[in-house]
Input
Amino acid sequence: MARYQIILSYDGTDFQGFQRQGSKRTVQGEVEQALRRLGWCGRSILAAGRTDSGVHAAGQVIAFDLDWQHTPDALARALDSALPHGIAVQSAALAGEDFHPRYDARARQYRYEIYCRPVVDPLRDRYAWRVYPALDGDLLRQAAALLTGARDYAALGKPPKPGGSTMRIVYSSEWTQTADGWRYRVSANAFLYHMVRRMVYLQVRVGQGRLTTARLVEVLDQEVVPPPGLAPASGLCLEEVRYQISEKEIRMLTGEVNWNEL
Output
């Protein structure tokens, strides 16, 4: 018996999120069914995070114990062939017996896709949010710069467990322009429930001139109630889970960073 670390990608459109939920179709449920065909007898796989209904993943990390007599590459191929359309194994590797994809993670990175057109493109709506009027790049970047650092992010989401901490450290928050839209990447030690989708929504309002950066600061400081709304799940993708972080990120975790360096 050994513990394996698997990197999964999936199109979240047709799943009710990652976490198993009774009779609903979820990524976890499908993966566990596939594993049972390979002789897995566990109760529950371990995962780095629980993506919402409709959210995609390019680098979700799971782990499980399995009595497997072949190579990790052979396991990746066997599991991949047993999975339904929309879920794929990217890699498999042996892990330490106490490895936990969630608790050992040091950083998560999400990507959000936006396109700016006056009309809907049905072929892109599965993976992006149509926003119009177009966004002001300078305002977007100003807003993104405010969403970094160690602070209480209670205004942007709820903790996974009732009464849990809402302190988080956002390592990076950046927008890059695409052919007809924008791509947002954000990394943090962890995220609150709905945090990234709320971050994107508020920044889009700033980029459209509907919310000032000064008001965004007041929202973050919990001086005013944030405008209600979330960016659609379709544009969001869990891009990567990292188990090693940079020296600068370590210093941010320990509170030793000089914020003027960022």
About this structure: The radius of gyration is 19 Å. The CA atoms of residues 5 and 73 lie 11 Å apart. Helices lie at 27-36, 72-82, 137-146, 195-207, 213-220, 247-253. The longest helix spans residues 195-207.
